[in-house]
Amino acid sequence: MRAVPERVPNYGRGPDELIWHKPGGRAVADFQPIACSDTEGLVMPWSAKDVPLDLDEPHQRWCPDCLALAREETRRA
Description:
The chain is α+β, with helices and mostly antiparallel strands. The chain has one helix at 64-76; strands at 2-8, 17-21, 31-33, 41-43, 49-50, 60-62. The chain contains 1 helix and 6 strands. Strands 5-1-2-6 form a 4-stranded mixed beta sheet. Strands 3-4 form a two-stranded antiparallel sheet. 22% of the residues are buried.
C-alpha cells in the first residue's frame, strides 16, 4: 500500500519513529494531505513508497486510522 512517513523525533532518548500514513490526495507544494484527517497533513513530506500492511520494522508503525482505511480499501479491491 502506498504510504508517506511522518517522522516523530525522540530528541536523543532513542531512535526516531516513523509513522506511516495513507495519502489523502495529491501533495500541494510542501503539504501532503493524509487519509486519517480532513484538516491535517504532513509538511515537507518524504516520497510515498509501498509499505506492507503487516509492517514489522523496528521504530516504524502504521497510523491506526490509516491502517484501517488501507485494509478496507484492500478488501474492496
